[in-house]
Hints:
2-isopropylmalate_synth_dimer; 21 helices; 3 domains; three-stranded antiparallel beta sheet; eight-stranded parallel β-barrel; TIM Barrel; Citramalate synthase; amino-acid biosynthesis; 39% helix; branched-chain amino acid biosynthesis
Amino acid sequence: MARERLYLFDTTLRDGAQTNGVDFTLDDKLVVAKMLDDLGIDYVEGGYPGANPTDTDLFAQDRDLNTTFTAFGMTRRPGRSVSNDPGVAALLDAKADAICFVAKSWDYHVRVALETTPEENLASIRDSVTAAKTKGREVLVDCEHFFDGYKANPDYALSCAKAAYESGARWVVLCDTNGGTLPHEIEEIVGAVTTVIPGDHVGIHAHNDTEQAVANSLAAVRAGARQIQGTLNGLGERCGNANLVSIIPTLKLKGEFNSRFEISVSDDQLKALAAASRKLDDMLNRAPNRHAPYVGDSAFATKAGIHASAILKDPVTYEHVAPEAVGNRRRVLVSDQGGRSNVMSELERIGMSVDKNDPRIARLLEEVKEREALGYAYEGADASFELLARRILGKVPDYFDVEQFDVNVEQRYNALGKRVTVAMAVVKVKVDGQTLISAGEGNGPVNALDVALRKDLGKYQKFIDGLKLTDYRVRILNAGTEAVTRVLIESEDEEGERWTTVGVSPNVIESSFQALMDSVVFKLVKSGATA
């Protein structure tokens, strides 16, 4: 039996831009649009031309994209004609393949927010859709607060949706704008809508205020909707929008959806999903959600020894999908909760071939447990574990020796007469018998140490030029004035590979320096540098 087509509509560049702390530049929008296009997304909503200079510039230029690039804006204002509405004019003039109008569908909002009559609102929907169709554009109508409107006055909410469809809208999108509707309500109401509007013209736009946006989107599909709107990583105002990074693999890999429906994302494009999710976080300078379904670092990670052993023997029954299908990987974590199976799995991953009966395995496991009792956490520090394992099971070259480091933090007036806090670090290292002294300034003591340490490592400098720190986390392990601190540092190299290192000490500078050292040494080992 032929599968039905589902369409994916991404609103990252508009809804996602409403996320607290997110501010896309024009270049950002072009990069994200290309990334979404490469993923195979059917529609990419670029923004609201005329609302701000960035979006206006975006829709003024040509783009080489296969996706249906969509402009967003309001239906004509009450009391005006389409030809006398600047907002509609900006949409019609935009270089866009499609136009998505947002329209009120709750009679309460029509009266209070628009201060107009229900009939005028319906006329506004019809006129706007007709004008865009006349211009040769594909048209979508987002029925704002549709589910609340339907609960309050189902006849009027349906009349708004019908007005859009009967005027020629390709898609009538039902919006759970405040994110308060539950899946069983979504399924019931979408089912009612599809009795009057064909399901292959109905879309769902869900917000995540009750953590139901993905479930609501899938419920809408089960009830007959054939377009799903959402954002990468669930970006969006308040609690976010439906997360396409979770929806896409569910549609591709889960029984009922995979057997009944097909989407535009190919198997190869699905394998790029984790990379796309992380790339967006990188662009926004946000730490990726380690526990994100499908794509997070912990999505296919296990810690307990009994589960680790079982997963290695039979991963199919312990993992709901193959991690490689979405561009992720299995992680069997090494910790004081794990056993020999965890260690052997991690050694295999890093390419160290060791017999499981080698007595050094027991020594390595004992060392891990002793160090974790002191506060180290190797389950989240893959690179530090690899260095520890190599030191016990093989060898890590003595690339350089840090003889001394000093960190100084001072407040002073700068040249503009403004009082500033400045951190400076000096590091003395010995490389091949030669002493090298480097100084660095930073926006804090750890940043200054990092700058100074990587400023001059002699013959090894070429291996670390592309190294950068991407995340820094500190945890206080016990209370009081003698508190022990654990520092986790995430690093990235020029190839885009990431790793995490750990340091533990009562002194936060010392624990940070341990993690920094491991990061640099790991990069040298990874690059094949020799002593």
